[in-house]
Amino acid sequence: MSCVAVITGASKGIGFDLAQRLLDKGYAVINLSRNAPEFSHEQFETMAVDLLDADAVRDVAARLADRGVTHLVHNAGLIWPNLLEDAEPEDITGLAQLHLGSALTLLKAVLPGMKERGFGRVMFNGSRAALGVPTRTAYAATKAGMVGMARTWALELAPHGITVNVVAPGPIRTDNFWEIIPKGSEREEELAGRIPVRRLGTVEDVSNAFLFFCAPESGFVTGQVLYVCGGASVGSVSL
């Protein structure tokens, strides 16, 4: 079967690593992001879109409807950290569009083709922060919302051969992480020491989990949340 994967936010970090690894497996990959990476491959293309803009998402979704999409990986995300006193309802509204609304619009566009083929893989990049982390009011709320939405979709789509799962990373060495924790700082080292496996995660750690859910052989696994967090979901590790 020819596989076409749409990955949001595949210009860097986890999404970029996953895109490269899927390309190595013979997939065609469509990246949805504001900026294209400095990378070229005959099976890789970027559609420029700001996922915070609902109208822009609808436009790009319409362009995907006839592209034979078999895999949808909603990886793009923002944190917008602030304490409760500084949080605003608009933070939740914005991240709800990015983390939830855009995923709904994109899946609705490619779902008819998945149902027709009797095969599909839908995945979210969630977060261990959905369990609660200080300064994450909007982020934790919308990442937790991914879980409820994914489980609902998993139940609705299972009869059609379409699985829906969530990968929930803990602290991963990416630009988003270093925007909060200075790279190479004592704070970074101290945080790594509090994770049960005594290190921060890598983008490869997270891609490994996505590759499992991507596989045709994983069709009996749906509605699940796989924490890739070095044991942080068991203990109490805060950023």
- Structural class per helix/strand content? alpha/beta
Order of helices and strands: EHEEHEHEHEHHHE
Count all strands and give the number: 7
CA distance, first residue to last residue: 42 Å
If you average the pLDDT, what whole number results? 94
Count of helical stretches: 7
- Which segments are poorly predicted (pLDDT under 50) over 5 or more consecutive residues? none
| Dominant shape | globular
Rg calculated over all Cα atoms: 17 Å
Strand line-up in the sheet with most strands = 3-2-1-4-5-6-7
Q: What share of the residues does DSSP label as strand, in percent?
A: 15-25%
Tell me about the largest β-sheet.
7 strands, parallel
Helix content: 40-55%
What do you see in this structure?
Strands 3-2-1-4-5-6-7 form a seven-stranded parallel beta sheet, with helices on both faces. Helices cover 41% and strands 16% of the residues. It has helices at residues 13-24, 54-64, 89-117, 137-157, 175-178, 186-194, 203-214, and strands spanning 4-8, 28-33, 44-48, 71-74, 120-125, 162-169, 225-228. Strand 4, helix 3 (89-117) and strand 5 form a beta-alpha-beta unit. Helix 1 packs across helix 7, helix 2 packs parallel to helix 3 (89-117) and helix 3 (89-117) runs parallel beside helix 4.
